[in-house]
Amino acid sequence: MLRIAIVEDDMKYQQQLIEYLRRFEEEKEEILTIETYSDGDEIVEHYKANYDVILMDIQMDFMDGMSAAEEIRKFDSEVIIIFITNSTQYAIKGYEVNALDYILKPISYFQFAERLSRVVSRTKRKETNYLTINVKGGVMRLEVSDIYYVESQGHNLLFKTQKEEFVTAGTMRDLEKQLASFHFFRAHKGYLINLEHVEGMSDNCAVVRGEKLLVSRNKKKPFMEALTKYWGEVIQ
């Protein structure tokens, strides 16, 4: 499934993009979900970092597409942005916000389908899983594989990731359910550990990227079993 946002203030083009997406969906047998916004400030204000692709008009009244893309990139470095524009002069500028491509108006279905096919291929190759969390001042979309561990801190959760640390409100119980289909293990009431980043055991601690995290006595045996099973799956 591909989650797509259309940001276009011209209703004629917005409707055309929806029709092209539905045609593409039928021809390529892909599942698409579509949400529409009529201006750049609208998507920025409500942005939840849960899209795979944003089709972004550049010239809009309140907030232009380039400015909107700059704001979105502060929270989401992964979403694919394709600009819709009247002029090729914006193509080079698009690299500044890591845009994948641009489509010139008037839009032909062939041109559109060609770009979208490239996006689908890229998305399927990557097959990255994400977790969206609320943080101070906005939201962040984290790659699940980048999370080393999560620590419970009262009513907050501290995410230790490859890049930095993030704090969000929440409970370990709810998070454990969200990550149930991935290789995470509740080794202690205060820690949810990503087995992908466990380097070994030292005394009663799991060594996670050089950091020692305490494993509860009653969790040690099932933790070792889960870790051994995970390592076996990776080696195979």
What does this structure look like?
It contains 7 helices and 15 strands. The strands form 4 sheets. Strands 2-1-3-4-5 form a 5-stranded parallel β-sheet. It has a 5-stranded antiparallel β-sheet with strand order 10-9-8-12-11. It has a 3-stranded antiparallel β-sheet with strand order 13-14-15, with no helix packed on it. It has 2 domains: 2-126, Rossmann fold; 130-235, OB fold (Dihydrolipoamide Acetyltransferase, E2P). The longest helix is centred in the first third of the chain and has 18 residues, at 11-28. Strand 9 (156-161) and strand 10 (165-169) form a beta hairpin. It has 236 residues and is an alpha/beta fold. The protein is elongated. The protein has helices at residues 11-28, 40-45, 65-73, 89-94, 109-126, 172-178, 220-235, and strands at 2-7, 32-37, 53-57, 80-85, 101-104, 130-135, 138-143, 147-153, 156-161, 165-169, 184-188, 191-194, 198-202, 205-208, 211-214.
Give a concise summary:
With 236 residues, the protein is α/β, with parallel strands linked by helices.
| Number of structurally distinct domains | 2
Rg from alpha-carbon coordinates: 21 Å
> What is the CATH superfamily of the largest domain?
Response regulator
**What multimeric state do the chains show?**
single chain
Total helices: the number is 7
Strand line-up across the major sheet: 2-1-3-4-5
What letter string, H or E per element, gives the SSE order? EHEHEHEHEHEEEEEHEEEEEH
Q: So what's the CATH class of the largest domain?
A: Alpha Beta
Percentage of residues assigned to helices: 25-40%
Shape: elongated
